[in-house]
Prior knowledge:
Blueprint: E1 3-5, E2 8-11, E3 14-17, E4 24-28, E5 34-38, E6 44-46, E7 50-53, E8 56-59, H1 83-89, H2 92-97, H3 106-115, H4 121-135, H5 143-163, H6 168-191, H7 195-199, H8 203-208, H9 212-224, H10 258-261, H11 263-267, H12 269-286, H13 292-309, H14 312-330, H15 332-335, H16 347-353, E9 357-359, H17 363-368, H18 375-380, H19 389-402, E10 411-413, H20 414-430, H21 448-451
Amino acid sequence: MSLLRMSAATLDGVTTVNGEKSPTAWECDEDAKCVEVPACDEEACRTTLDVRIHGTWYDLSGWRKAHPAGSHWIDWYDGRDATEVMDAFHSAKALEMYKRLPKSTPETAQLLESTAEPDTSTQIAFRKLRTKLEEDGWFERDIGREVTLLSIWGGLVVGSFATASSLPALSTVLIALAMTNAGWLGHDYVHGVDKFSDRMRYFAAYAAGLGVTWWSDKHNKHHALTNEQGVDEDIATDPFLYTWAPDPKYDSPLRKIQHLIFFVPFSALFALWRVDTVKVIIEAIENKRPQAKNEMYCILAHYFTLLTFLPFKVWVPAVFLSGLMSALIVTPTHQSERLFEDYQPDWVTAQFESTRNAKMTNPFSEWLWGGMQYQLEHHLFPSMPRGNYPKLKPILAKFAKDNNIPGGYRESGEFEILKMNWDLYRTVAKADPVEGAPYSRGHGQLGAIDLGLSPARGGLAGFGGSE
């Protein structure tokens, strides 16, 4: 949380001069129950964190640390509208719960409303579409379909265990397919807000060794701020792969041959994810984040199972094979589309412009891609069960046409989209470095408040308050 050093300041509507009055801030728990607490200590006062949701400004400063998905990415919405991301990521319970959070003071709300971008006609139309889809049952999960998909995953695992000694090469392929498949299933369950998803939330942890906490922290920001350079870590793949010509000080000799060696970093994807998972879960336990220990137990169970039933010569190569398959699937749907140097207030249009679907040519590919071929549907409605995405395609195509979205509904064949991504790597490899080009890491996981970059830093105090 940012601190403003002040001897006199206006905060939460309370003026303090020579200590005559004490300003207050908010402290909230996981149930969004908030109480007023002193905002200042002997040297500094805490600022507010004001976000607009469905036309109302809320002070989320007290809720920030209690937020189950982490505090780091929510800071980027300070002084901005977060309606779409709030609706997209949260359950019906959470959507009712946020309404209990403290509202911004009238003075702060008025000031922020005058500086924030107004809702576009596309955003308003999208909210109406979402409401209709919710009323029509599009977010209900087909349990029979889930049982089928889980059975396929289970069959791959059993097949790998059974052939580990006699046919180790086959065993490696089978467990690699199981790992990739588990990643997509777990991805769907982490995003899901239904009861079945709640029960299966840690599936990716014990089935693929991928942490829910790590995934949520990293992936939610990708969904919220897709293709924003310096913010979206999913496009920050340098120094091994660059998606735009970098500033000379961030360049690497590898860039010149990246289109020839792309499969090497691609193969390391799952291994890197696993390492990041362990780092994040250890930190989460140290910070006493909810359910962190339970997640650690699931990850330990995953490695116990691998070490018990599969030799190193099977499961270690499988991790890299699975990484290659997964990277070939997750990278092309965004990287070759529009990249943004600045924050995009119209979240809906930004999703259309930064996302391209892949059209499958056969049933195996349809299964292997795990719903990622419907990337636009997933980004606009991440909590919708992926089985409903094919039926949603014509609706979104019509929405894009009706709302004159630049580029419309973007879709290419599964091999064409891979070729597009490779062409991007080759083009960037041949390009000269560009002075002042955005740094892909940007400000990483640090929040806008901590850096003093948010447009409404400190509420009223941020608009003329002194540090």
